[in-house]
Amino acid sequence: MKYLHACFLRKRNMLIVRSFTTLLLLSCIAFKLACCFSSSISSLKALPLLGHLEFEDVHPASKDFGNRYQLLPLAVLHPKSVSDIASVIRHIWMMGPHSQLTVAARGRGHSLQGQAQTRHGIVIHMESLQPQKLQVHGTGGPTPFVDVSGGELWINILHETLKYGLAPKSWTDYLHLTVGGTLSNAGISGQAFRHGPQISNVHQLEVVTGKGEILNCSERQNSDLFHGVLGGLGQFGIITRARIALEPAPTMVKWMRVLYLDFAAFARDQERLISSDDDKFDYIEGFVIINRTGLLDSWRLSFTPEDPIEASKFKSDGRNLYCLEVAKYFKLDQDKKDVMNQVRSERIIV
């Protein structure tokens, strides 16, 4: 019995020692992290910046459109210049991996998987970049383009280029997004079948690399960086400026929707349209409608009053529908508008 009791005491003492060692180790790690963060904050605050680093009001930068992740950053950089971004990234690079600081660029926060967030790192608020005048070039030539900031919104680019009768070749459906944000993903919409996504319509980029270097890149200059950054989800550099290809903007657009109940017919028609050699349409996009809230009721306005039979086919009965949205562009004089009406607007259910 005495032997068993001694063994029990010895095991209990060993367990206590191990527990104490574990707690001591965790305390040391926590203390070290606290010291690192304290040192990081002090050194970051000492950086000479035109903009500023925000260490208090950082909660808005811990969310995005996907609403799946909430990663609280150490600070948010509000840059006034590209050199601000380069200075912060260069400083973090020189601190080395022991700082454990990471960086994420954030535009309008429309990422789905937390790409615009970073836990205990630095979020760069790209819209804080000092606004620069959009520069449209080659308006009378065959290859016009516009130079824009990475924090510029596509809607602003559209408004400015339309003054010259021009527009970017490829869009996203929602235009209140930053240039750097969509070019870091792909930028896909209904024009992609003809011109490719937005990343296929870029001539040149200005990029801040992971070492804090400011580099220009294109197909011919730093091409590896150029192709890595485009669609690279911000992992190969931060886009601070882009040269975007333009084309003559249409003066009028004929817009149509076709609804399907059968997915096979929907997919077959979409593939046939996008693979066609003719120029019947300039915009083709397909999507699914989960009709649970009477969404289609608002689509009755798509019909003219002379189409009561077609309008009556819109039944909000909870069925999933498939929609092809297509558009034809026209460059017409005022007295030739009747030509556009020869393209009949079909809104049918197949």
From TrEMBL:
<keyword id="KW-0285">Flavoprotein</keyword>
<dbReference type="InterPro" id="IPR016164">
    <property type="entry name" value="FAD-linked_Oxase-like_C"/>
</dbReference>
<dbReference type="Pfam" id="PF01565">
    <property type="entry name" value="FAD_binding_4"/>
</dbReference>
<comment type="similarity">
    <text>Belongs to the oxygen-dependent FAD-linked oxidoreductase family.</text>
</comment>
<dbReference type="InterPro" id="IPR016170">
    <property type="entry name" value="Cytok_DH_C_sf"/>
</dbReference>
<keyword id="KW-0560">Oxidoreductase</keyword>
<dbReference type="Pfam" id="PF09265">
    <property type="entry name" value="Cytokin-bind"/>
</dbReference>
<dbReference type="InterPro" id="IPR006094">
    <property type="entry name" value="Oxid_FAD_bind_N"/>
</dbReference>
<dbReference type="InterPro" id="IPR015345">
    <property type="entry name" value="Cytokinin_DH_FAD/cytokin-bd"/>
</dbReference>
<dbReference type="InterPro" id="IPR016166">
    <property type="entry name" value="FAD-bd_PCMH"/>
</dbReference>
<protein>
    <recommendedName>
        <fullName>cytokinin dehydrogenase</fullName>
        <ecNumber>1.5.99.12</ecNumber>
    </recommendedName>
</protein>
<keyword id="KW-0274">FAD</keyword>
<dbReference type="InterPro" id="IPR016167">
    <property type="entry name" value="FAD-bd_PCMH_sub1"/>
</dbReference>
<dbReference type="InterPro" id="IPR036318">
    <property type="entry name" value="FAD-bd_PCMH-like_sf"/>
</dbReference>
<dbReference type="InterPro" id="IPR016169">
    <property type="entry name" value="FAD-bd_PCMH_sub2"/>
</dbReference>
<feature type="domain" description="FAD-binding PCMH-type">
    <location>
        <begin position="69"/>
        <end position="249"/>
    </location>
</feature>
<dbReference type="InterPro" id="IPR050432">
    <property type="entry name" value="FAD-linked_Oxidoreductases_BP"/>
</dbReference>
